[in-house]
Design goal:
Distance between the termini: 179 Å
Structural class: alpha+beta
Strand content: 15-25%
Radius of gyration: 61 Å
Helix content: 25-40%
Largest sheet: 5 strands, antiparallel
Low-confidence stretches: 30-51, 53-87, 97-146
Number of strands: 29
Strand order of the largest sheet: 1-10-9-8-7
């Protein structure tokens, strides 16, 4: 019994040992298969290491790639063996690895051995690829290179091919030879270095002068002659003319000219026969328009009289002769007799002032007297009977701007100054001084005009305000205006009462507006009647525009225009444009200053070059 049991145990133990061997064999089989798969995976995915051989461009020729001699000798004898080895190497290596792995105790050691053997395989394949590339047959080389680089990716094969082609291309360019030739040419062209020669100093040459103060050298004990310093006198561009009467001598004529003597006689005769105290009646607008339409201009009624711009203008009241007087920016006073032909012989120019003549009138009591006011501070009267310019008023401390007659006999005047003050002048008093000097609240006075009926009132145009004063309430210390017109927003050029009744006031402002006020009742307020839009921007070279009343039609004013074609416009007090004087080729400039004959339909316009344009029937 015990023997049978022992036999049974021995048989069971042998079976167990057999089973353990079988299991161990199976595990080794599985491990070998796993290792083989990993070898295959490693062969396909491992990056190939390519060994590049250094070369020189001088060792290459076009279309040929040379390998080092050591590599050629090594593989020239074993070409056939390499081809056979290619097919059997992988199998032999795998068998060797499997055998070693079965004997190994760990799987990590087997895997590292397989990776190392796979790298050796690929390195040998790369060497065979280089060998097959050097063969001359293109078809066999293509097939052989595909077999040799079967373990490489297409990118690596293309990269090796590009390297070979680029090397052949650069060898064909012969860059090293060209660089050598260029280097030789550059070395030949370099100019030799020359040193600049320093100029030799002359022994007797005088050096630059230096300040004795900077050199700390005491000055020589030689005293310079004392030269008295005299003050330099600056010549005045427009010196004042000497006080007292000035002889009436035309600048454009000989003083002994027979024409000038005849002109003085004619002027005296027409002044005696001039109309006086003629009742003036206001005509209808329809009749007035018809009379204006008959006024024309021609070449005979256009003439240059003065050198500078015209600033003032007046008509002689004679109905027999047509005589117009103008005051210029140069201080000249010009007279033109339009009835004399040729027209140049009827022009006479005088120089009674040294600065611009801004106001000019013929005396209402004696038309043989022509009064002119200038910025030089003088007011003179040209007397034809004595052929002199008498000095009526002189003020060298202040510049004068405008004046008007306070009395109908032209014995007293009200004079405006540019500094805003006013002077009362009486011709009956000996001397050339004022009777009273009045200060006003205006900073400047541009124009001053007396009421034609109530002569105790007069109006002044300042910078932006218009004041009406009563002469009876003027005081030297300061006078307040009776009425102030503050509707203007910019500089005011002029302000005038209507010529017959004084019931209207017209103002010209730089805001391009003409304003009409109702002055029929002078009280604390004067209402604004009408505003007319009109371009009054004059610029630098054009004289300021001034709207003036027509003495024959006191509800209409006349003013120059900047419109094209050039023209002179007539407006009614209600804002209606009555007429436009167009001159065609005879009127090609802006007539800023205009005057109208008191009884005849004659209009004169002056421009900024001293030329007069006359419209007449």
């Amino acid at each position: 019994m015990s023997g049978s049991c022992a036999a049974a145990e021995e048989k069971a133990g042998s079976r167990q040992r057999l089973q353990m061997k079988v299991n161990e064999y199976k595990e080794n089989q599985d491990m070998s298969s796993v290792s083989l798969m990993s070898v295959q995976k490693t062969v396909l995915e491992k990056t190939v290491k390519v060994c590049l051989v250094p070369f020189s461009l001088s060792n290459y020729k076009s279309g040929q790639l040379k390998l080092p001699k050591s590599l050629l000798d090594k593989y020239s004898k074993n070409e056939v063996a390499c081809k056979k080895y290619k097919k059997t190497e992988i199998k032999t290596a795998c068998t060797r690895i499997l055998t070693s792995k079965m004997e190994a105790t760990t799987s990590s050691k087997a895997e590292s051995t397989l990776q190392k053997s796979s790298i050796d395989v690929h390195t040998e394949n790369n060497q065979r690829q280089h060998k097959s590339t050097s063969d001359g047959d293109s078809d066999e080389d293509t097939t052989s290179s595909l077999d040799d680089f079967s373990g490489l990716s297409p990118y690596e094969r293309k990269r090796l091919k590009n390297i070979s082609e680029n090397a052949n291309f650069f060898a064909s360019l012969q860059l090293s030879e060209s660089a050598a030739r260029l280097r030789e040419m550059i070395e030949k062209r370099q100019p030799p270095e020359t040193k600049r020669k320093k100029p030799r100093k002359k022994e007797n040459e005088t050096g630059c002068r230096r300040s004795m103060r900077l050199l700390n050298v005491d000055p020589l004990e030689v005293s310079l002659p004392v030269t008295p310093t005299q003050p330099t006198l600056v010549a005045d561009e427009n010196p004042l003319l000497p006080p007292g009467p000035l002889e009436m001598i035309p600048e454009n004529r000989d003083d002994n000219s027979e024409l000038f003597k005849e002109f003085l006689q004619t002027w005296a005769e027409v002044s005696k026969t001039s109309s006086k105290n003629i009742e003036k009646q206001l005509s209808s607008i329809k009749t007035y328009k018809a009379n204006l339409s008959g006024m024309v201009i021609s070449e005979d009624t256009v003439c240059k009289v003065t050198k500078g711009a015209i600033l003032s203008m007046a008509f002689h009241p004679s109905e027999i002769k047509t005589l117009v007087a103008v005051g210029a920016h140069s201080g000249q006073v010009g007279l033109w007799d339009l009835t004399h032909q040729p027209k140049e012989d009827g022009v006479y120019v005088f120089q009674p002032h040294s600065q611009p003549v801004s106001c000019l009138y013929f005396s209402p009591a004696n038309p043989a007297h022509m009064l002119s006011l200038s910025h030089d501070g003088t007011l003179r009267c040209g007397d034809i009977s004595s052929a002199v310019f008498e000095e009526v008023y002189r003020n060298e401390r202040s510049s004068l701007s405008s004046f008007d007659f306070l009395a109908e006999d032209a014995s007293t005047f009200i004079v405006g100054h540019w500094d805003g003050s006013m002077s009362l002048v009486d011709r009956r008093t000996p001397g050339t001084s004022y009777e009273k000097l009045i200060s006003s609240s205006l900073r400047k006075i541009r124009t001053i005009h007396v009421h034609p009926v109530q002569r105790q009132y007069f109006i002044t145009a300042g910078l932006r305000d218009i004041h009406i004063y009563d002469i009876r309430s003027l005081t030297p210390s300061g006078s307040q205006p009776l009425i102030s017109l503050t509707e203007h927003t910019k500089s005011i050029a002029s302000a005038y009462f209507s010529p017959l009744t004084g019931n209207r006031i017209v103002t010209t402002c730089a805001d391009c507006k003409l304003r009409f006020f109702d002055s029929s009742c002078i009280s604390s307020q004067i209402p604004l009647l009408t505003t007319i839009r009109h371009n009054t921007i004059n610029g630098r070279w054009v004289t300021e525009f001034r709207a003036v009343w027509d003495p024959k039609q006191e509800d209409c004013v006349i003013i120059g225009s900047r419109a094209h074609p050039r023209q002179v416009e007539v407006f009614h007090e209600m804002g209606e444009q009555v007429h436009s004087f167009l001159g065609g080729d005879c009127l090609v400039s802006v007539c800023s200053i205009n005057a109208v004959h008191p009884t005849r339909y004659i209009l004169a316009g002056g421009n900024s070059s001293g030329k007069i344009h006359v419209f007449m029937n």
